[in-house]
Write a structure and sequence with these properties.
mainly beta; eight-stranded antiparallel β-barrel; elongated; binds 2-acetamido-2-deoxy-beta-D-glucopyranose; Allene_oxi_cyc_Dirigent; Dirigent protein
Length: 187
């Protein structure tokens, strides 16, 4: 009886020793993906980017040392923290912000184009704390254009989709208001 008990204790001990987390081990699990129901979400908001004024929401961080006098010569890099609002006026309710960088990437005489690497984060409502990642070329000259949504955080984890952009207002000194209609697939 006692022998059996000792044996049992040893078996338990070995089991615990073998299953205890070992931080130095490479491990993985791989199981069939039984897909949960996918949702589709449509979002509509306005994006405000201003490089001018007392409180710019975008700043030039680098540009090539050449004679191109334009506001965004090929190679210019801008960092932004741009508000997203419900309506086209900056005074309308702010529902999030777009953060990241964009790079002027058209070589003259090509039409202006920027490459956008932006995270659109929401700060109110259903998607407060969640964000969607856009990684896309943006032919800013075209009135209507499309950006790719390549991922997301929070409720937008694993998101993919697209954003349709429509320029609402342009100040040639360096400010734009753009209407975004976004469709994202996520879980
Ligand atoms: C910018 O270009 C000019 C003319 O080529 C050169 O003299 C100057 O040293 C350059 N400045 C920097 C910071 O590279
Ligand atoms: C959004 O979430 C943050 C963090 O959880 C919270 O502090 C804030 O009050 C929320 N805002 C709204 C408008 O729900």
């Amino acid at each position: 009886m006692e022998g059996k008990l000792i044996q049992l204790i040893w078996v338990l001990f070995l089991f615990i020793a073998m299953t205890a987390p070992a931080h130095s081990h490479y491990s993985f699990t791989s199981v069939p993906n039984v897909s949960p129901t996918e949702k589709v979400t449509n979002l509509h908001f306005f994006y405000h980017d201003s490089l001018t004024g007392k409180n710019p929401t975008g700043v030039l961080v680098a540009k090539p040392n050449n004679s191109d006098p334009s506001l965004a010569p090929f190679g210019a890099v801008f960092a932004v923290n741009d508000p997203l609002t419900v309506g086209p006026e900056l005074t309308s309710e702010v529902i999030g912000n777009a953060r990241g960088i964009y790079v002027s990437s058209a070589v003259k005489p090509e039409q202006p184009m920027v490459m956008m690497y932006l995270d659109f984060g929401f700060t109110s409502g259903e998607f407060n704390g969640s964000s969607i990642s856009m990684f896309s070329r943006n032919p800013v000259q075209e009135k209507e254009r499309e950006l790719a949504v390549v991922g997301g955080r929070g409720k937008f984890r694993m998101a993919r989709g697209y954003a349709l952009l429509n320029t609402f207002f342009v100040d040639p000194k360096g400010a734009v208001i753009v209407e975004y209609t976004v469709t994202v697939f996520h879980y």
